[in-house]
Amino acid sequence: MRxxxxxxxxxxxVVLSALAVPAASAADxxxxxxxxxxDTKITKVVVDGDNKVQIGTSGxxxxxxxxxxxxxSGIAGADTITLEGPDYGFYMTGKPSCAKVNSTTSTxxxxxxxxxxxxxxxxxxxxxWYVDAWIDAKDGDYVWxxxxxxxxxxxxxxLTVNASPEPVKKGKTLTVTGKLSRANWESLxxxxxxxxxxxxxxxxxxTSSYKTVKTVKTSSTGALKTTTKATADGYYxxxxxxxxxxxxxxxxxxxxxxx
Length: 259
What we know:
Blueprint lengths: L3 E7 L2 E7 L6 H5 L3 E4 L3 E7 L4 E4 L5 E10 L4 E4 L3 E4 L3 E4 L4 E4 L4 E10 L12 E11 L4 E14 L1 E8 L8 E12 L4 E4 L4 E8 L6 E7 L5 E7 L4 E7 L8 E2 L3 E3 L3
Parallel strand pairs: 5-13
Antiparallel strand pairs: 1-2, 3-13, 4-6, 6-11, 7-12, 8-9, 8-12, 10-11, 12-13, 14-15, 15-16, 15-19, 17-18, 17-20, 20-21, 20-22
């Protein structure tokens, strides 16, 4: 683990966003970059349920990290799990607790609290992050693995939609507008996300799923505008699939009454 500056501690979590001169810690002198003893293996890593963490501009978010490991003697426990990402991003979880799956396998879980208002996140921190973990077996075996798993650390998105006129005559043109924006961790505000492909979707009244009508690009300010023909009562929304740095988001459907 390297020592870095600009540190903010939040309920056991640490995020760092600027690099100091690297210095070896006690852990560095003991642990190889990847290694272990015996037959202990990490078999699965899950972060926040789906390996995607979206952070907005306010509010405390608790992120759960689970590491599943196996050894023929069973798992004794786990050391603190660390998360590392772009622009020297770094978090440290609290002490993991391990739940037995069977005689050889356990899942060790821990959490970290993230608050964009105090953690000094930079927009460059968004992207692919990695989980580093140390697991101990009951017979003295262990495994230490950097990049044992990965997840997306993303800026949260917002998406709006408005279809008009309402009501509208069948076969007439509907104009659908909206805006895609995303969290700016440095200003702690949401700003328009330009040049992104967003789907216009429609769900007919009485049905359960949306269908894509067309794909629209956001303007330089994140604005969306397109037209479509009104066919029947139903809901219109914009849907954004997300990018590596920005989370997926769907607008709340806007109901249109077709006469």
